[in-house]
Amino acid sequence: MDFPINANLVKYERKLSFTDCNTLSSMDKLSTQFLLSFDRDFDNINLLKSGKRVINIRYL
């Protein structure tokens, strides 16, 4: 199954705080390692390979 390269890119219209940047960095690493999909507010996180919903990303 092929996934679009830009599937997880989201445009942010506001300045990012330090916490936001850390969260984005973590989500980027997770999406690379685990092929996650998530929406603008980091809700509805799913593993693309299995479709399994992720309740807490710390436990991946």
Structural notes for this entry:
- It comes from Saccharolobus islandicus (strain Y.G.57.14 / Yellowstone #1).
- This is PIN domain-containing protein.
- With 60 residues, the protein is mainly alpha-helical.
- The chain is built from one helix and two strands.
- The protein has one helix at 18-34; strands at 36-37, 46-47.
- The protein has a two-stranded antiparallel sheet.
- The chain is flat, with a radius of gyration of 12 Å.
Relevant terms:
single chain, 60 residues, mainly alpha, two-stranded antiparallel ribbon
Distance between the termini: 22 Å
Mean pLDDT: 58
SSE succession? HEE
- How many beta-strand segments? 2
Domains counted in the coordinates: how many? 1
| Unreliably modeled segments | none
Overall structural class, as computed from helix and strand content, comes to: mainly alpha
* Largest sheet, strands/sense/barrel: 2 strands, antiparallel
How much helix, percentage-wise, in residues? 25-40%
Tally of individual helices: 1
Shape: flat
Strand composition percent: 5-15%
The main sheet orders its strands as 1-2
Rg from alpha-carbon coordinates: 12 Å
